C-alpha cells in the first residue's frame, strides 16, 4: 500500500473499494475489484523465463486432470509463450484466448472476429466485467446484502457503458464474455445484448455471461431469446453455500441455477474458474449432480431442485463448452472426423454412487491423438 501511495486520504477508485478500518479510517489491506489496479502498477513484472515455467506447470497440471481445452484471460506475454510452445510442438492444451476489454479495440481494428485462429489457439473473444464477487459483497444486486445493509454491490461500469462496449464488440463480429454475478449485473448484461441486437441485427454471436450466479426468474427467458450462453462453474455452489444464505437470504433460490437454466432452453457451458476454484472437472461434475460439500451434506443437496443429471453435467462440460468457443465442429464429442481429445478414468462414472466421482482417477489424457498424461500402475504420472 505504501509503495502504491495508498493511505487514509486515497479516494475509492471507480468500480472498486479500499476497505478501511471503521474506527481509524486507515486502509486494512483489502482491495476490492478495480482498487487492485492501484497496487498492480507497482508489482514487478514476471520475467519471461518464470512466466514460461508457470505456463508449462499449468499445462502439466491440466493434463493430469484430463483437461484438454480451456478458455483463458490471455495477456500478450502469455500469448507469445503459447505460440512458442505451439511452434515447438509442446502445446498440450487447446486455448481460447480472451482479450481484456481495453485491448479489444486493437483486435477490432485488425478485423479479428470470434473464433479467429486454429484448433490450438483462438482469438476474438473480449472479456468485460459488470460487477465484482458475492464473497466480497461487490456483486451487484437490486436489493441490499442482508449482512451489509445499504450495500448493493459495486458496478464495474455503468449500464450505459456496458451497452456501448458490447455494441462495439458485437458490431465487429467479436464475442462478448461478460462477468456477471449479482441479479442486477446479469440483467444489465442482458440489456446490453438486447441493445446490440437491436442496433446491429441478429447473428450467431454466442455472447456469453460468465458465472450467471444469481439470475431472476423473469430474466431466464431472455438468454435463449437473445442467443446468450450461460457459462457457469458448479463448484462455486458447493464453496459459496457455506455463507451465501447469510449474504443474500432467500435470493439463493435464484443462485447457481443449473437445472433452471437448462429447463429454460438456455445453452449452458460448464467450467471451473481456475485458479479461483480447482481446475479439476470432477469437482464441478460432483457439485452439479449433488449440490453437497465434498465432505458430504447437506442431505439431499442445497436447493436440490437445481441438481442436474450426470449426463447433463458431462454434456455441459464437453459439448456445451465446445459450442461456447465456436469449436463444436471439431471438439466436444467423440465422433469420426473430430479431433481426438479424450480422457480415460479408472472407473465408469455412470455406475458409481455420486460421492465416488471425486475418487475417480485419471488414467490417460489424449490431446489430438497424442498421449499427454498417463498414470502408471504404481501411481506415478508419466507426462509426454
List the helices and strands and how they pair.
Blueprint: E1 16-20, E2 27-33, H1 37-40, H2 48-64, E3 69-73, H3 76-87, E4 94-100, H4 101-110, E5 116-117, E6 121-129, H5 159-171, E7 175-180, H6 183-200, E8 208-211, H7 222-226, E9 229-232, H8 235-240, H9 244-248, H10 258-263, E10 268-270, H11 281-290, H12 310-324, E11 342-345, E12 362-367, E13 370-375, E14 381-382
Parallel strand pairs: 3-4, 4-6, 6-7, 7-8, 8-9, 9-10
Antiparallel strand pairs: 1-2, 5-6, 11-12, 12-13, 13-14
Order of helices and strands: EEHHEHEHEEHEHEHEHHHEHHEEEE
Low-confidence stretches: none
Q: Report the β-strand fraction as a percent range.
A: 15-25%
Distance between the termini: 44 Å
- As a percent range, the share of helical residues equals 25-40%
CA radius of gyration is 21 Å
Regarding quaternary structure, how should these chains be classified?
Answer: single chain
Main beta-sheet annotation:
8 strands, mixed
Question: Kindly state the mean pLDDT as a whole number?
Answer: 95
Number of helices: 12
- Structural class, by secondary structure, is alpha/beta
- Taken from the alpha-carbon principal axes, the silhouette is globular
Number of distinct beta strands: 14
List keywords for this structure.
4-stranded antiparallel β-sheet; alpha/beta; 384 residues; 8-stranded mixed β-sheet; 12 helices
Amino acid at each position: 500500500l505504501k509503495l502504491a501511495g495508498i493511505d487514509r486520504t486515497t479516494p475509492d477508485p471507480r468500480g472498486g473499494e479500499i476497505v478501511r478500518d471503521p474506527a481509524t479510517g486507515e486502509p486494512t489491506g483489502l482491495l476490492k475489484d478495480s482498487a487492485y489496479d492501484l497496487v498492480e502498477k507497482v508489482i514487478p513484472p514476471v520475467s519471461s523465463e518464470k512466466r514460461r515455467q508457470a505456463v508449462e506447470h499449468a499445462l502439466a497440471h491440466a493434463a493430469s486432470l484430463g483437461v484438454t481445452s480451456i478458455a483463458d484471460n490471455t495477456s500478450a506475454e502469455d500469448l507469445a509463450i503459447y505460440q512458442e510452445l505451439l511452434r515447438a510442438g509442446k502445446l498440450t492444451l487447446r486455448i481460447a484466448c480472451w482479450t481484456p476489454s481495453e485491448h479489444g479495440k486493437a483486435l477490432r481494428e485488425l478485423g479479428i472476429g470470434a473464433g479467429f485462429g486454429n484448433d490450438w489457439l483462438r482469438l476474438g473473444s473480449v472479456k468485460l466485467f459488470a460487477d465484482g464477487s458475492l464473497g466480497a459483497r461487490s456483486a451487484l444486486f437490486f436489493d441490499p446484502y442482508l449482512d451489509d445493509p445499504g450495500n448493493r454491490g459495486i458496478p464495474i461500469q455503468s449500464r450505459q457503458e456496458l451497452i456501448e462496449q458490447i455494441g462495439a464488440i458485437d458490431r465487429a463480429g467479436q464475442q462478448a464474455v461478460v462477468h456477471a454475478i449479482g441479479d442486477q449485473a446479469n440483467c444489465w448484461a442482458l440489456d446490453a445484448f438486447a441493445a446490440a441486437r437491436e442496433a446491429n441485427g441478429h447473428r450467431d454471436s454466442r455472447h456469453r455471461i460468465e458465472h450467471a450466479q444469481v439470475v431472476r426468474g423473469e430474466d431466464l427467458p431472455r438468454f435463449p431469446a437473445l442467443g446468450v450462453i450461460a457459462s457457469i462453474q458448479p463448484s462455486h455452489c458447493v464453496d459459496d453455500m457455506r455463507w451465501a444464505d447469510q449474504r443474500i437470504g432467500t435470493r439463493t433460490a435464484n443462485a447457481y441455477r443449473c437445472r433452471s437454466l437448462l429447463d429454460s432452453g438456455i445453452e449452458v457451458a460448464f467450467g471451473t474458474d481456475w485458479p479461483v476454484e480447482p481446475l479439476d472437472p470432477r469437482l464441478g461434475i460432483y457439485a452439479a449432480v449433488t449440490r453437497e460439500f465434498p465432505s458430504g451434506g447437506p442431505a439431499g443437496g442445497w436447493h436440490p431442485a437445481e441438481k442436474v443429471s450426470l449426463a447433463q453435467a458431462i454434456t455441459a462440460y464437453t459439448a456445451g463448452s465446445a459450442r461456447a468457443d465456436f469449436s463444436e465442429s471439431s471438439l466436444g464429442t467423440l465422433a469420426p472426423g473430430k479431433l481426438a481429445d479424450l480422457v480415460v478414468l479408472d472407473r465408469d462414472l455412470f455406475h458409481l454412487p455420486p460421492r465416488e466421482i471425486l475418487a475417480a482417477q485419471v488414467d490417460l489424457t489424449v490431446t489430438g491423438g497424442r498421449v499427454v498424461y498417463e498414470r502408471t500402475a504404481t501411481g506415478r504420472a508419466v507426462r509426454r
